[in-house]
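Example S7 (structure tokens).
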């Protein structure tokens, strides 16, 4: 299967550089110089992953990400010259899966793309699971990478999906922050504790108005998914 990557950046030089390296790795490429063009491509093409520059003309990358997340849960990597925790946390809050700071090494960009593709699409026979996982009123379908609560689909980012797969495969098991980090983000780059907390908080908000209804915090230990309603 060939994966199609959407590069959204208003600088042709950046798009050309990423295209060169990603095509060399076997990926198909679509390009857009604005948020409007990107949405049009997403509407007509089967995009596997998007690389979004934050500083875009008109609709910026954060607003574009919000638009994408309204009906699409593909992996999204934000690209920005602003290498600050505030921007990273904002991107994660809005549903980004990864963050790449300019100037970047194109080989690192390729590694990030491969890592996110691998996590989201579960490459390799050993990691593919076809059985639906059910816990309480939650139902996770590994084939379609979807989560339903009471029959209603809950939109998840790729990292959120991986964490729900981890929790639902082992209900009532306590996972440490290190285990959550390794399962959700892999060992390709560093993820700060507050980023994990942001992701867990976003998951809880999607599951219930009660923050502790499904994913419970065990102070000093970690988190677990409750198999029974409290």
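Recovered sequence:
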């Amino acid at each position: 299967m060939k994966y199609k990557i959407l590069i959204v950046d208003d600088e042709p030089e950046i798009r050309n550089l990423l295209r060169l390296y990603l095509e060399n790795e076997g990926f198909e490429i679509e390009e857009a110089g604005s948020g409007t063009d990107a949405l049009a491509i997403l509407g007509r093409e089967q995009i596997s992953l998007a690389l979004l520059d934050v500083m875009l003309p008109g609709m910026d990358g954060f607003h574009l990400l919000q638009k994408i997340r309204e009906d699409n849960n593909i992996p999204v990597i934000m690209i920005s010259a602003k290498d600050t925790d505030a921007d990273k946390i904002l991107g994660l809050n809005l549903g980004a899966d990864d963050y790449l700071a300019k100037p970047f090494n194109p080989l690192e960009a390729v590694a990030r793309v491969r890592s996110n593709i691998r996590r989201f699409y579960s490459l390799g026979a050993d990691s593919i699971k076809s059985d639906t996982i059910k816990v309480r009123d939650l139902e996770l379908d590994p084939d379609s990478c979807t989560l339903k609560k009471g029959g209603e689909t809950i939109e998840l980012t790729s990292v959120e999906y991986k964490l729900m797969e981890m929790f639902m495969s082992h209900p009532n098991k306590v996972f440490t922050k290190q285990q959550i980090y390794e399962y959700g983000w892999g060992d390709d780059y560093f993820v700060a504790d507050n980023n994990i907390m942001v992701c867990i908080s976003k998951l809880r908000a999607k599951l219930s108005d009660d923050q502790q209804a499904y994913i419970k915090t065990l102070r000093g230990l970690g988190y677990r998914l409750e198999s029974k309603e409290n």
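Notes on this example. The two ends are 44 Å apart (CA to CA).
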